[in-house]
User: Which sequence fits this backbone?
Protein backbone atom coordinates (compact mmCIF):
# COMPACT_ATOMS: atom_id res chain seq x y z
CA UNK A 1 0.00 0.00 0.00
CA UNK A 2 1.06 3.59 -0.68
CA UNK A 3 -0.41 6.83 0.66
CA UNK A 4 -0.46 10.06 -1.33
CA UNK A 5 -1.38 13.58 -0.32
CA UNK A 6 -3.76 14.77 -3.04
CA UNK A 7 -5.13 18.21 -3.86
CA UNK A 8 -8.28 19.13 -5.74
CA UNK A 9 -7.54 21.97 -8.14
CA UNK A 10 -10.92 23.74 -8.06
CA UNK A 11 -10.92 24.40 -4.29
CA UNK A 12 -7.39 23.54 -3.12
CA UNK A 13 -8.55 20.89 -0.62
CA UNK A 14 -5.63 18.68 0.43
CA UNK A 15 -6.41 15.13 1.57
CA UNK A 16 -4.84 11.69 1.95
CA UNK A 17 -5.63 8.64 -0.15
CA UNK A 18 -4.33 5.06 -0.08
CA UNK A 19 -3.60 2.98 -3.19
CA UNK A 20 -2.20 -0.46 -3.90
CA UNK A 21 0.62 1.07 -5.95
CA UNK A 22 1.55 4.14 -7.95
CA UNK A 23 0.18 2.40 -11.05
CA UNK A 24 -3.07 1.74 -9.19
CA UNK A 25 -3.37 5.48 -8.47
CA UNK A 26 -2.72 6.37 -12.15
CA UNK A 27 -5.29 3.83 -13.32
CA UNK A 28 -7.98 5.07 -10.92
CA UNK A 29 -7.38 8.71 -11.91
CA UNK A 30 -7.63 7.82 -15.63
CA UNK A 31 -10.97 6.09 -14.97
CA UNK A 32 -12.33 9.07 -12.98
CA UNK A 33 -12.51 7.10 -9.73
CA UNK A 34 -10.52 9.56 -7.59
CA UNK A 35 -12.54 12.49 -6.25
CA UNK A 36 -12.10 15.11 -3.55
CA UNK A 37 -13.97 13.83 -0.46
CA UNK A 38 -14.87 17.39 0.52
CA UNK A 39 -16.32 18.83 -2.70
CA UNK A 40 -16.51 15.86 -5.10
CA UNK A 41 -14.19 17.46 -7.70
CA UNK A 42 -12.58 15.00 -10.12
CA UNK A 43 -9.65 17.29 -11.01
CA UNK A 44 -7.31 15.81 -8.38
CA UNK A 45 -3.50 15.72 -8.46
CA UNK A 46 -0.68 14.59 -6.20
CA UNK A 47 0.35 17.28 -3.73
CA UNK A 48 3.87 17.85 -2.44
CA UNK A 49 4.47 15.39 0.39
CA UNK A 50 6.95 14.94 3.20
CA UNK A 51 8.12 11.38 3.89
CA UNK A 52 6.16 9.63 6.61
CA UNK A 53 8.06 7.57 9.15
CA UNK A 54 5.81 5.80 11.61
CA UNK A 55 6.46 4.16 14.95
CA UNK A 56 7.16 0.45 15.04
CA UNK A 57 3.99 -1.60 14.68
CA UNK A 58 4.16 -2.89 18.25
CA UNK A 59 4.61 0.56 19.80
CA UNK A 60 2.30 3.50 20.37
CA UNK A 61 3.46 7.06 20.78
CA UNK A 62 2.85 8.59 24.23
CA UNK A 63 -0.66 10.01 24.36
CA UNK A 64 -1.71 8.29 21.11
CA UNK A 65 -5.30 7.13 20.97
CA UNK A 66 -6.46 3.72 19.90
CA UNK A 67 -7.78 3.83 16.33
CA UNK A 68 -11.25 2.77 17.50
CA UNK A 69 -11.53 6.06 19.44
CA UNK A 70 -11.28 8.05 16.21
CA UNK A 71 -14.31 6.58 14.42
CA UNK A 72 -17.28 8.85 13.77
CA UNK A 73 -20.86 7.68 13.42
CA UNK A 74 -21.58 10.79 11.31
CA UNK A 75 -19.32 10.73 8.22
CA UNK A 76 -21.32 13.49 6.51
CA UNK A 77 -20.86 15.68 9.58
CA UNK A 78 -17.12 15.00 9.49
CA UNK A 79 -17.02 15.94 5.79
CA UNK A 80 -18.89 19.19 6.49
CA UNK A 81 -16.55 20.01 9.36
CA UNK A 82 -13.43 19.29 7.27
CA UNK A 83 -14.81 21.34 4.37
CA UNK A 84 -15.46 24.27 6.71
CA UNK A 85 -11.94 23.99 8.16
CA UNK A 86 -10.42 23.81 4.66
CA UNK A 87 -12.41 26.87 3.56
CA UNK A 88 -11.32 28.81 6.65
CA UNK A 89 -7.67 27.89 6.07
CA UNK A 90 -7.93 28.87 2.40
CA UNK A 91 -9.31 32.28 3.38
CA UNK A 92 -6.56 32.78 5.96
CA UNK A 93 -3.87 31.89 3.42
CA UNK A 94 -5.36 34.24 0.80
CA UNK A 95 -5.21 37.10 3.30
CA UNK A 96 -1.66 36.48 4.55
CA UNK A 97 1.87 36.64 3.16
CA UNK A 98 3.89 33.45 2.66
CA UNK A 99 7.35 33.92 4.20
CA UNK A 100 8.58 30.31 4.00
CA UNK A 101 11.47 29.34 6.27
CA UNK A 102 11.79 32.96 7.44
CA UNK A 103 8.59 32.56 9.50
CA UNK A 104 10.19 32.65 12.97
CA UNK A 105 12.44 35.61 12.15
CA UNK A 106 9.62 37.54 10.46
CA UNK A 107 7.13 36.87 13.32
CA UNK A 108 9.73 38.03 15.83
CA UNK A 109 10.47 41.19 13.78
CA UNK A 110 6.76 42.03 13.59
CA UNK A 111 6.39 41.46 17.34
CA UNK A 112 9.37 43.72 18.12
CA UNK A 113 8.19 46.45 15.74
CA UNK A 114 11.09 45.95 13.32
CA UNK A 115 8.75 44.93 10.45
CA UNK A 116 5.32 46.04 9.28
CA UNK A 117 2.40 44.43 11.10
CA UNK A 118 0.69 42.01 8.73
CA UNK A 119 -0.64 38.44 8.72
CA UNK A 120 2.02 35.90 7.66
CA UNK A 121 2.33 32.15 7.23
CA UNK A 122 5.29 29.90 6.60
CA UNK A 123 7.34 27.08 8.11
CA UNK A 124 8.90 26.82 11.56
CA UNK A 125 10.52 23.96 13.40
CA UNK A 126 8.92 22.81 16.67
CA UNK A 127 11.85 24.42 18.50
CA UNK A 128 11.32 27.74 16.71
CA UNK A 129 7.58 27.65 17.46
CA UNK A 130 8.22 26.90 21.13
CA UNK A 131 10.72 29.76 21.32
CA UNK A 132 8.21 32.19 19.77
CA UNK A 133 5.53 31.11 22.25
CA UNK A 134 8.00 31.49 25.15
CA UNK A 135 8.63 35.07 23.95
CA UNK A 136 4.87 35.79 24.00
CA UNK A 137 4.47 35.67 20.23
CA UNK A 138 1.22 33.96 19.23
CA UNK A 139 1.63 31.21 16.61
CA UNK A 140 -0.89 28.60 15.53
CA UNK A 141 -0.32 25.52 13.36
CA UNK A 142 -2.57 25.14 10.32
CA UNK A 143 -4.81 22.05 10.24
CA UNK A 144 -4.00 21.04 6.64
CA UNK A 145 -0.74 20.86 4.67
CA UNK A 146 0.15 24.01 2.75
CA UNK A 147 1.57 23.82 -0.74
CA UNK A 148 4.25 26.45 -1.18
CA UNK A 149 3.65 29.02 -3.90
CA UNK A 150 5.12 27.70 -7.17
CA UNK A 151 5.40 24.11 -5.87
CA UNK A 152 2.14 22.75 -7.26
CA UNK A 153 2.49 19.53 -9.26
Assistant:
Amino acid sequence: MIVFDLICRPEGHVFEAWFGSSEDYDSQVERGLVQCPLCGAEHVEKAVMAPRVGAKGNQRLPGARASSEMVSSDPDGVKRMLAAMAAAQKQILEQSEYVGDRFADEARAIHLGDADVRPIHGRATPEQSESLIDEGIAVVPLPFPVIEPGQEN
Remarks:
- Residues 75-94 form the longest helix (20 residues).
- Residues 106 and 115 are 7 Å apart (CA to CA).
- Helices lie at 22-30, 75-94, 103-112, 126-134.
